Amino acid sequence: MTKSEGAFEPQFDEPTVDPHRVDSTVDPHRVDRRYYVEGATWEHDIARRNRNSRSLAWIVATIMSVVAVGSLATLALLVPLKTYEPYMVVVDKATGFVEVKRPMAEGPLTQDEAVTTFNVVRYIKARETYDPKALKDNFDLAQLLATGDAARELTEIYSPANPKNLVKVLGANTEVAVSIKSVTFPNNRTALVRFSTEQKSAVSITTRNWVSLVRFRYTSSPMRNEYRFDNPLGFQVLEYRRDQETAPSPGTVGAPKS
Asked: What are phi and psi of 257, to 5 degrees?
């Protein structure tokens, strides 16, 4: 059976709820649970921030402490900022040359400096000494310790074709002794040597003062064993220059020295 057109249908109104109406079933003294949750979250946030701030403060304090300790250590190393070192000044009576000696510090020479000083002095004594009895030995040693221009010049000095050959000039009755005064090193390949020579014959003694510039090196080139015995480190003089400091001072044999 179908509804006929125009049949009456009852209409019902939807219930309305007043938003301002207080539900009598809800306890007005009961606190919402979300309040406690939000309060706990806030408390945790505050505690976390405090921990982070405290950790950051400790880190900054530690860094500043390290910087302060480092600054104090650096300052301690710099103290005293000014020191006074005594030096010995020597004036040569013959030439008037003023030389500042080594600082008065404790401890010996370094090994390298001592060995190089020994080699330089040995070369100059072998080259500048004139002793007819040991002429060949001194010449051979000077040649062993020299190379290049230094070796060539020494060969020319004793060449039979040289009219200024020391053997021809000084003969067999004259000797020249060498006395080293000082050895300094402007750099690690150059030596400045001050020395004097005493030329003694049967009737006279002549003293001369010299300054020599010696340029040298150490070589590892192959060398015969007998040469290594006299020059184990391969010391070689490359250039040798000698200049006279003062005019020669002649004397006589037996006269007292000033």
From this structure: -85, 140
DSSP assignment of 95-164, as one string? Answer: T--EEE-----SS---HHHHHHHHHHHHHHHHHH-B-GGGHHHHHHHHHHTB-THHHHHHHHHT-TT-TT
CATH class name, domain 110-252? alpha beta
pLDDT tens, position by position, 202-242: 889 999 999 999 999 998 877 777 778 888 899 999 999 99
CA distance 2 to 179: 152
What backbone phi and psi angles, to 5 degrees, belong to 64? Answer: -65, -35
Q: Which amino acid is at 169?
A: V
Q: How far apart are the first and last CA of the chain?
A: 164
Whole-prediction pTM value?
0.59
| Residues contacting 170, CB < 8 A, separation 6+ | 130, 176, 199
**pLDDT tens digits for range 126-155:** 999 999 999 999 999 999 999 999 999 999
